[in-house]
Design a protein that fits this description.
Blueprint (H helix, E strand, L loop, with lengths): L1 H17 L10 H14 L9 E7 L4 H14 L6 E7 L2 H10 L7 E5 L3 H6 L8 H10 L2 H6 L1 E2 L2 E2 L2 E2 L7 E5 L9 H11 L2 E3 L9 H6 L4 E5 L5 E6 L4 H15 L3 E2 L10 E6 L4 H8 L3 E4 L3 E4 L2 E4 L3 E2 L2 E5 L5 H14 L2 H11 L6 H4 L2 H4 L2 H10 L3 E2 L5 H15 L8 H17 L3
Parallel strand pairs: 1-2, 1-3, 8-11, 8-12, 16-18
Antiparallel strand pairs: 3-17, 4-5, 6-17, 7-12, 7-13, 9-10, 14-15
C-alpha cells in the first residue's frame, strides 16, 4: 500500500504542476515530466491537498461499488481525505449528453462510452491525461482501450473496461473448426442447424468491410459537427466484403440475427458478452466461445474485424490544481488493476487492464476471453451520424432480399459508390 500511495502522490503532484487550469494542453507534458522528476524530493511535503467537494457519475450497477472503493482509497490516503465525494447514478449513455449540455454543472468525474469521446473533447468537458498518468493508461491497459481513450494524439480518459464487442458463440458438438466461416457454415448445414449474424446492422456489418481492410470513420469539429467522412468502401476491398456478405446470405443455414434469446436451433451465433448466460443455457454442455473466424473471398482469407467498445472515466477540467490532482488520483485508482479485478468479481465488467485479463478468474470466463482476442482485430467505435445506422441497415436488407445475388463486381462497385457518396454527404 505504501508504494501505491507514493506513486499516486508523485502522479498527482505532476498533474497539479502540469494542469494549472482549464486550458491545459498536450504541450504541457514536458513541464509535467520536470515536476515528476522533482517529486521524490518534495514527497514528504505533499501531505494535504486541501478541502472541497467532488461529484462522481457512474452507472447504477456500480454506484455502491464505486462509493466503497473511493472511501477505501481516501482512508488509505489521508492527504486526499479533505474532499467530500458524492457518487450519483448517471449511466454512461446519459453522462456525455448531460455534460455537454452543462459542463459547469456536470460531474467532476464521470464514466462514459468511448463513442462519446469526440463530443466531450469538443465541449471542453475533459481534462487531458498527461505524464506518468498517460504512461499508466498506455502500459496498464490493452491497446484497444488505450486507443479508445485517445484523440488526435492526446489521452483524455482512463479505461475501465474492454467488454463491448462481438465474437462467436457455438455448439462444439456441431462446429468442428471455429476459425473458418466456411467450415462453420458447412457444419451448420450438415447438422441442420442455423448460423446467426446480423448483417443488416451497421454495427455488425463493418466486421466484413474492416476485415478486408476498408475504412469508415468520421471527423468532427469543435462543435461536434461532422466535417469529413473517411471511407473507401467503393474499392476492390469493399467489393470483396460485399461479396462475402452475399455468399453468407446464400447459405441455407444463415439467419439474420444477433440475439441468443431470439435464436432457435442455432449451431453458432455472433453476439456479445451480455448474452453469455443465455448462450450457456442454450448450448448447455456444448457451450463454447471463440474470436470471430476468417472468411474467404476469391481464394483469399480475411479475419473478421468490426467495432470494439470500451467504458472510460474522465475528469472535468478544474480551475483548482489541487482538486484536479485529487480527481486524477481517484480515477487512476478506480481504473487500477486492483479495482478492475474487484469490479469484475462483483459486477462482471470485463477488464481493460492487461494483468487482470490474464487473471485466473477472467481467463476462466470463456466469453470475455473470446472477446479480448477479437478486440485485437477491431477499431474503437467513434461517432457516426444517425443516418449512417439506417444506411447500413438498408444495405444489409438489400443483401438479405437477394437483390445482389447475381450481380457482377462492376454492379457491386456501383452499389458501394452510392453507399460511399451517401456516407460522405452526412459530413457536408
Amino acid at each position: 500500500m505504501k508504494k501505491r500511495v507514493l506513486a499516486l502522490i508523485m502522479s498527482t503532484t505532476m498533474v497539479a504542476a502540469a494542469l494549472t487550469g482549464c486550458g491545459s494542453s498536450k504541450e504541457e507534458t514536458p513541464a509535467a515530466d520536470s515536476a515528476a522528476s522533482e517529486a521524490g524530493a518534495a514527497t514528504e511535503e505533499v501531505k494535504d491537498y486541501g478541502t472541497g467537494e467532488i461529484k462522481v457519475w457512474v452507472a447504477e450497477n456500480v454506484k455502491t461499488f464505486t462509493e466503497t472503493k473511493i472511501k477505501e482509497f481516501q482512508d488509505a490516503n489521508p492527504q486526499f481525505a479533505g474532499y467530500a465525494v458524492t457518487v450519483e447514478q448517471v449511466g454512461e449513455g446519459d453522462a456525455a449528453s448531460n455534460m455537454i449540455t452543462d459542463v459547469a454543472g456536470g460531474a467532476d468525474i464521470y464514466g462514459f462510452s468511448q463513442d462519446q469521446l469526440a463530443r466531450l473533447v469538443s465541449a471542453s468537458a475533459l481534462s487531458p491525461v498527461v505524464g506518468e498518468n498517460e504512461t499508466f493508461v498506455k502500459e496498464q491497459n490493452d491497446a484497444g482501450a488505450a486507443s479508445a481513450a485517445t484523440m488526435a494524439g492526446t489521452t483524455f480518459a482512463y479505461p475501465l473496461t474492454s467488454d463491448n464487442g462481438y465474437f462467436l458463440y457455438y455448439d462444439k458438438s456441431v462446429v468442428t473448426d471455429p476459425t473458418s466461416l466456411d467450415k462453420i457454415v458447412a457444419d451448420c448445414e450438415a447438422a441442420g442447424k442455423s448460423f446467426y449474424m446480423e448483417i443488416n446492422s451497421a454495427w455488425y456489418q463493418p466486421a466484413f468491410f474492416f476485415g478486408t481492410g476498408c475504412t469508415l470513420t468520421y471527423d468532427t469539429d469543435d462543435m461536434g459537427n461532422f466535417t469529413a467522412c473517411n471511407i473507401d468502401y467503393a474499392s476492390e476491398n469493399g467489393v470483396k466484403a460485399l461479396k462475402a456478405m452475399i455468399n453468407l446470405k446464400k447459405s441455407p443455414a444463415f439467419v439474420n440475427g444477433s440475439s441468443v434469446s431470439n435464436a432457435t436451433n442455432a449451431g453458432a451465433i455472433v453476439d456479445g458478452t451480455w448474452d453469455s448466460g443465455a448462450a450457456k443455457e442454450m448450448f448447455g454442455d456444448n457451450y463454447a466461445c471463440a474470436k470471430l473466424p476468417a472468411f474467404t473471398v476469391d481464394g483469399t482469407d480475411y479475419q473478421f474485424s468490426g467495432f470494439g467498445g470500451f467504458k472510460l472515466m474522465g475528469i472535468k477540467p478544474q480551475a483548482d490544481a489541487n482538486k484536479l490532482a485529487v480527481c486524477h488520483a481517484i480515477v487512476k485508482y478506480l481504473s487500477s488493476e486492483e479495482v478492475q479485478l474487484a469490479r469484475y468479481n462483483e459486477v462482471g465488467w470485463g477488464p481493460s487492464n492487461v494483468a487482470v485479463q490474464q487473471s485466473d478468474a477472467v481467463k476462466a470466463d470463456e466469453a470475455l476471453s473470446a472477446l479480448a482476442e477479437q478486440l485485437a482485430f477491431t477499431i474503437p467505435q467513434g461517432q457516426y451520424p444517425n443516418d449512417y445506422w439506417a444506411l447500413g441497415t438498408s444495405l444489409g436488407d438489400s443483401v438479405i432480399a437477394g437483390e445482389y445475388d447475381n450481380a457482377s463486381d462492376e454492379d457491386l462497385m456501383k452499389v458501394l459508390e452510392n453507399f460511399q457518396t451517401t456516407c460522405q454527404s452526412y459530413a457536408q
